[in-house]
Amino acid sequence: MNPKIDVNCDLGESYGHFRIGHDSEIMPYITSANIACGFHGGDPATMLHTVRLAKKSKVAVGAHPGFPDLMGFGRRDMGLSKEELRSTVIYQLGALEALAETENMNLQHIKPHGALYNIAAKKDEYAEALIEAVLNTNSDLIMFAMPDSRLAELGTEAGLKVAFEVFADRAYNSDGSLVPRSREGAIISDTGIVASRAVRIVKERKVTAIDGQTVSFNRIHTICVHGDTSNAVELAKSIRKALQTANIQVLCVNSFF
Amino acid sequence: MNPKIDVNCDLGESYGHFRIGHDSEIMPYITSANIACGFHGGDPATMLHTVRLAKKSKVAVGAHPGFPDLMGFGRRDMGLSKEELRSTVIYQLGALEALAETENMNLQHIKPHGALYNIAAKKDEYAEALIEAVLNTNSDLIMFAMPDSRLAELGTEAGLKVAFEVFADRAYNSDGSLVPRSREGAIISDTGIVASRAVRIVKERKVTAIDGQTVSFNRIHTICVHGDTSNAVELAKSIRKALQTANIQVLCVNSFF
Amino acid sequence: MNPKIDVNCDLGESYGHFRIGHDSEIMPYITSANIACGFHGGDPATMLHTVRLAKKSKVAVGAHPGFPDLMGFGRRDMGLSKEELRSTVIYQLGALEALAETENMNLQHIKPHGALYNIAAKKDEYAEALIEAVLNTNSDLIMFAMPDSRLAELGTEAGLKVAFEVFADRAYNSDGSLVPRSREGAIISDTGIVASRAVRIVKERKVTAIDGQTVSFNRIHTICVHGDTSNAVELAKSIRKALQTANIQVLCVNSFF
Amino acid sequence: MNPKIDVNCDLGESYGHFRIGHDSEIMPYITSANIACGFHGGDPATMLHTVRLAKKSKVAVGAHPGFPDLMGFGRRDMGLSKEELRSTVIYQLGALEALAETENMNLQHIKPHGALYNIAAKKDEYAEALIEAVLNTNSDLIMFAMPDSRLAELGTEAGLKVAFEVFADRAYNSDGSLVPRSREGAIISDTGIVASRAVRIVKERKVTAIDGQTVSFNRIHTICVHGDTSNAVELAKSIRKALQTANIQVLCVNSFF
């Protein structure tokens, strides 16, 4: 059997007149869209518009909740209490779900955004808040998480469907964590390199870390493509093409569970 | 048969550390809670807390969506496009619904807040956006509207359940519109007067306007009690007591449809 | 003596990670930068960065205050009281002034943004709030206003320096008002047409309205170039070049008073 | 010579319709008002109103800048870069200064709010950003800081006037740090206890920590009274009265430098 993978991208992050990303151009190359929910980015009209774009391209939609920090784009650490975080995530989930339902779309997954994603990988309290938000609303939602993260471990324990996510366009440390954006070399923009990393990730479940060592993954469900870099469309296209050339099936992540 | 009425109040309007209203004290005297949804007031944790309070007091919950204007508490006119308004309302409905569902509560109704309520009474485009938001998400929701408002008329035409709302603690113009808050005498705070106005409203479907004339209503489903005045609890208590003394049944509005 | 004109552009409207405009590319072609102040766009770090860019290009800086409506980019009507508006404008002025002073730059002018600019052209209360904000803080600030607007008239009466502003890339109605952005043909993007309109505006103080009639201006001090259109840099470059070819001096507006 | 002390309070933290604190009632009992600047609380109209209140009561005004986190009231940790923080503080300083100047008031001091105050006590980068903001705008501003904090140490090194602040209504750990608000016993509300703590703080420069040990201060310039507790007015009144009874002069902090 051919290997298979989901390709996801963060979309719908524009806010009113403030445009971010290349949503309509990227849609054809992905299978799962993580839609911002109004806190770190996204506004109601943008969210609805993005759901429609996804529907047209037969791309599955998921929630991409973030910290309430529009100015920091959800990329700054914030100290919320577990209860604040839980209700904040449920709020965002519900808002997107209602908009998706007006287009007869159901949410497939949830992927926490930015600093929330990174903190929930290490901090039990945040991971638990996310997991409870899913259990309290729609326990069928697939949780996107880094392999070996606390979010992945606790989510699995709690009985959630957890999709292990890998990044083809981000540098890895040898311990499997991402090199922070602020560090040089954190973002890989060469389409050829990213595409071949993507193929190796799926075929061998391996990626070369920034220090030259090899990081191995037990299991991988989805590859993230960033949508807000200048050559994001090119990147997405290259990855998709390289995966197909390598006989890898690109499918919505819900077909894996 | 005894006359009957629903008593509603705007609640959950606190925002983080900024407390507004007397939510827990007012709950015992009302039957329907209009819960702010995060735009003019309310934050996720407050919304969840308010749902729990309502549940404990067996009070029905509804959405109280407003303009995206926290600084102006949703009381300032804002020029949104119909599509912006529609998605903004769906967003707020969905967010509250998800939080309510975690407490096994369903939304009973929707009541637009502040300037949105007032503009939708006169402007078809805004009324239509609200109506479509309900039809697109949960067409069982009861729409609260002023009698003779465009929102009431268009909502009825569209097949929505429309609850006609009257205010016992606000002065009326002789044409049935509310005296604007900025005008003197707009807010009636004497508990005795408010209570007897409430009884007359239900029994006779009449209220005395600010110019001494009589305003008549064909039908009334619910009376609004304001929760953010200094004597709001006293007012709510007096109204509830006066209604009971007058042998008026106080029931959730959903029992009328 | 050669005719002379100031060329201004709205800049610094990015918000955190949300980038708008082509600030650094446009700077070389303008003489006055209207810097957003954090309400409709702009954040403290962006504002400071924009002041630095202007300083490097020897471009004068001014405040570009807007309504507190980030989601609507300050382009939606909002009903503020005069006192709310006055203090809101003083707040924004002071914030930018402090940031400018850290770079030893003084504010040259103030240009209200979007809906505030349009409403203040017609509504005395808003014009007065803007004028008082200037008189209360720094009465040397030059107020940018449309010719024949109430803001221009009342500002002149109050003793303010008022710079009459004309738009080369926006269509005019025959009464001298701008064709609203929502109407087709409101934005003129052909660089040749815009450049020759600019030259005619300065030399003849005339522009052809959307209905073919001619609009005349008594006096003109500054031409606005929009910075957020896709070909904004090309436009600014063409205008600047055409003005120079026509022997029109392009100077900071403060040299006219 | 009699001992002397400044009494300060955080004021102007209301946001639009959201009222916090008892500003007008507390003014008569304090000598320095820390006015919120629109980020964790405060809006332009409220800020101006608070400046006027202070002026009427002959209370000195200072800036009380906070994190951009209205929902969390600036009490949640946030990870800003040094440059983000510096420009954010300058922005808030300038905004308040402009509003104060319209009432012919000058800013006397700056006191960082909430989490910013606490983090700047320990983290050099945040302390430096605050210090640079003062040096870049108005180096005469007195910086309020906890004794032994990094903000106090680095501020003194940089040549700033630093006022050492002590809290009479907050419990201390034996190392001189504040017991976090989340811990029981963190807030002391008994007016008698708070008043006698205040007197002892000024006379002996000592306070009893939560574990019974004694915390000593080398020097103290100002005592903070919290304005948002239910008995804040009573507390302020009791402290002021107790200080006077003990022959302690209560003076604006600027008279100490």
The oligomerization state is homotetramer
Low-confidence stretches of chain A: none
**Biggest sheet of chain A: strands side by side, in what order?**
1-2-3-4-5-6-9
Q: Could you tell me the number of beta strands of chain A?
A: 10
Terminal Cα span of chain A: 17 Å
**CATH superfamily assignment of chain A?**
Glycoside hydrolase/deacetylase
Number of helices of chain A: 8
Q: How many strands, which pairing sense, and closed or not: the largest β-sheet of chain A?
A: 7 strands, parallel, barrel
N to C succession of SSEs of chain A: EHEHEHEHHEHEHEEEHE
Instruction: Provide the helix percentage of chain A.
Output: 25-40%
Gyration radius of chain A (Cα, Å) is 17 Å
Mean pLDDT of chain A: 96
- The structure class of chain A reads alpha/beta
**Molecular shape of chain A:** globular
Write the CATH fold name of chain A. TIM Barrel
Q: What CATH architecture of chain A do you see?
A: Alpha-Beta Barrel
> Total domains of chain A, how many?
1
Beta-strand residue fraction of chain A:
15-25%
* CATH class placement of chain A: Alpha Beta
The greatest interface here is: A-B, 23 and 23 residues
Summarize the structure in short.
By secondary structure, chain A is α/β, with parallel strands linked by helices. The first copy, chain A, contains 8 helices and 10 strands. Helix content of chain A is 37%, strand content 18%.
Descriptive overview:
Four copies of one chain form a homotetramer. The first copy, chain A, is α/β, with parallel strands linked by helices. Chain A has one domain (4-256): Alpha-Beta Barrel (TIM Barrel). Chain A is built from eight helices and ten strands. Chain A has a seven-stranded parallel barrel with strand order 1-2-3-4-5-6-9, surrounded by five helices. In chain A, strands 7-8 form a two-stranded antiparallel ribbon. In chain A, helix 2 (44-56) links the parallel strand 2 (32-36) and strand 3. In chain A, helix 3 packs parallel to helix 5 (124-137). The radius of gyration of chain A is 17 Å and the shape is globular. Chains in contact: A-B, A-C, A-D, B-C, B-D, C-D. Chains A and B meet through helix 2 and helix 3 of A and helix 2 and helix 3 of B.
